[in-house]
Design goal:
single chain; about 525 residues; TIM Barrel; Oligo-1,6-glucosidase, domain 2; 3 domains; eight-stranded parallel beta sheet; 16 helices; 19 strands; globular; binds 1-deoxynojirimycin; binds calcium ion
Length: about 525
């Protein structure tokens, strides 16, 4: 049997922004449950829900103060059980965000750890004496502000490590008690029926055991992100990370059919090591972020596919993502004209796709006025364009005042275009982005070649990229026009058009070339 996550489609939900049900302007778990029919109709397979645990919200939930509960703002454990049950009734899987690298500074473990040097939980976090001449123990810097990753603690006169905010102290996974407790967290959620985990910054969990300095980055210039002043050889993707991956995978495999997705941003030759080997498997899906961090440009996209395909061991299954809660939305990065082309590529290239909520509507970044900024990253590094609020705005359900997201003014403003870009309007229009995405997903489900088939490049030019997905008995071809002008693609012989990105009712059979508008694409099948 093929694993569900290979043919499946992951849909990422940022719970604060999906659907509010209790009128506090913040999305919640009952809101997700309420919208399950929409998601089932869309046709996605699994919902990855960003953190919904108790948290002081210094980093909007990525600072967890209890790993085995639900923040009251999002609901209760009973709400989570209901969500899991109702999702499963609709054949939707639930993937939670697991945050192993750091907890909140308000987690009871850290409160104990910092209370005295001989507290039994002292070694649950990473404490160090000052460097011999005074000051932080080494040169490591925090990801969010570019200042030291070490925070001085007056009471116990040592520094603790925080790779992100000082409100997010790093857990010490070299301590077996930490390991056992955190692995029990996995069991806790899997026992409740959760189908998999997206593992936050998994490749940062194991630091250099000798705490050596990171190297200076000679290419750093003013205007670049402050944390990039140093290379990160001692703080991420260290050789020991594979131990962590294997600990996690072993627990995962105590259960049937669960999936582990690792968050890491690495070049392909390093990324593929996180699959592990057949004998010692690690992540099922180490996230492939290359489309997010490089231009939507024909040669780049084709080269990404070809170099990824070449780097993957034969037991490894690829994955692709266009947007997430940390980076500008695809429709903003690539331009709204490319939104459909991006979706067509994401859902037809070989590998498991992850769709970010709202991308199926063509949602774009929303400008956030300075007085409404929420994201600590923007507050700590203003003006560098690192803030993530613009990509976390409320889901656009309908044309009402708060876009059907909430009865009250939401925690982040609704997009200006929500009157026209929303689920209700797009469901009524057969030529909308949503209708297109829905047709695309439905078609994908009927074609094994699109879900699980092999990949080969058919043709590329300065504007066109065509590829084939194939099994022993099925061939499906995808053509994408990256150019702004119309063009014609001449396939090898007559083809049947299965789907066109900008025409809900395309001509059935084409003898002499597929006409494509600018930024348009199509899925075709050769007529033998
Ligand atoms: C990566 C998450 O995606 C991001 O949102 C978060 O701020 C950091 N990890 C820290 O947990
Ligand atoms: Ca709410």
């Amino acid at each position: 049997m093929t694993e569900w996550w290979k043919s499946g489609i992951v849909y990422q939900i940022y719970p604060r922004s999906f659907q509010d049900t209790n009128g506090d302007g913040i999305g919640d778990l009952p809101g997700i449950t309420q919208r399950l029919d929409y998601l089932a109709d869309l046709g996605v397979t699994a919902l990855w829900i960003s953190p919904m645990y108790p948290s002081p919200m210094a980093d909007f939930g990525y600072d967890v103060s209890n790993y085995i509960d639900v923040h009251p703002m999002f609901g209760t454990l009973a709400d989570m059980d209901k969500l899991i049950e109702e999702a499963h009734q609709r054949d939707l899987r639930i993937i939670l965000d697991y945050v192993p690298n750091h907890s909140s500074h308000q987690h009871p473990w850290f409160l104990e750890s910092r209370s005295s040097r001989d507290n039994p939980k002292r070694d649950w976090y990473i404490w160090h004496d000052p460097a011999p001449g005074g000051g932080p123990p080494n040169n490591w810097i925090s990801r969010f502000d570019g200042d030291s990753a070490w925070e001085w603690d007056e009471t116990t006169e040592q520094y603790y490590l925080h790779s992100f905010l000082k409100e997010q102290p790093d857990l010490n996974w070299r301590n077996p008690e930490v390991r056992e407790t955190m692995l029990d967290v996995v069991r806790f959620w899997y026992d409740r029926g959760v189908d998999g985990l997206r593992v936050d910054v998994s490749y940062r969990v194991m630091k250099d055991p000798a705490f050596r300095d990171n190297p200076i980055n000679p290419d750093w210039r003013e205007g670049m992100e402050p944390y990039q002043r140093l290379g990160e050889t001692m703080t991420k993707n260290t050789p020991d990370i594979h131990m962590f991956n294997r600990w996690l995978r072993a627990v995962n495999d105590e259960y049937d059919d669960r999936v582990l997705i690792g968050e890491m941003n690495l070049p392909y030759e390093k990324l593929v090591a996180h699959y592990g080997s057949v004998r010692e498997p690690e992540f099922h899906l180490p996230f492939n972020f290359h489309l997010v961090f490089s231009p939507w440009e024909v040669n780049n996209v084709r080269q990404l596919v070809e170099s990824y395909e070449a780097a993957l061991p034969d037991y490894a299954w690829p994955n692709w993502v266009l947007s997430n809660h940390d980076q500008p939305r695809f429709a903003t990065r690539a331009g709204i004209d490319n939104a459909r082309l991006g979706m067509l590529f994401l859902l037809t290239v070989r590998g498991t796709p992850t769709i970010y909520y709202g991308d199926e509507l063509g949602m774009e970044n929303v400008d956030i006025p300075p007085e409404l900024v929420q994201d600590p990253w923007e507050l700590l590094t203003p003006g560098l364009g690192l803030g993530r609020d613009p990509v976390r705005t409320p889901m656009q359900w309908d044309g009402s005042t708060h876009a059907g997201f909430s009865e009250v003014s939401p925690w982040l403003p609704v997009a200006n275009n929500a009157q026209s870009v929303n689920v209700a309007v797009e469901q009524a229009d057969p030529n909308s982005m949503l209708a297109f995405t829905q047709r695309l997903i439905a078609l994908r489900k009927t074609l094994p070649a699109l879900q699980l088939g092999d990949y080969r490049t058919l043709e590329t030019s300065d504007v066109l990229y065509a590829f084939e997905r194939f099994t022993k008995s099925e061939r499906v071809q995808v053509v994408l026009n990256f150019g702004a002008d119309s063009t014609t693609w001449k396939p090898d012989g007559a083809v049947k058009i299965l789907l066109a990105s900008h025409d809900p009712d395309p001509p059935a059979t084409i003898q002499d070339g597929v006409e494509l508008l600018g930024h348009a694409g199509a899925i075709v099948q050769p007529l033998e």
